[in-house]
Design brief:
The protein is of the alpha+beta class and 54 residues long. The protein has one domain (9-49). The chain is built from two helices and two strands; from the N terminus they run ββαα. A two-stranded antiparallel ribbon has the order 1-2. A hairpin with a 6-residue loop joins strand 1 (9-12) and strand 2 (19-22). The protein is globular. The structure holds zinc ion (ZN). Zinc ion is lined by residues 13, 15-16, 18, 41-42, 44-45.
């Protein structure tokens, strides 16, 4: 299994426009779940929107 080295990236939320950090740990978690795209909302907006990430 190839190991991908993730690093923290800063993204901008499309919902509130605030920058947020998409951490290496989150990227690994997303990859494990088969989610390869970057999140478009900050964690706060994700919660408000009621997204389920599983
Ligand atoms: Zn937001």
């Amino acid at each position: 299994m190839p190991s991908i080295r993730h690093s923290d990236v800063e993204l901008r939320c499309i919902c509130c426009g605030d920058p947020f950090v998409y951490s290496a740990g989150e990227q690994e978690l997303f990859a494990l779940r088969g989610l390869l795209r970057e999140p478009h909302e900050c964690p706060t907006c994700r919660k408000l929107l009621g997204h389920r990430w599983n």
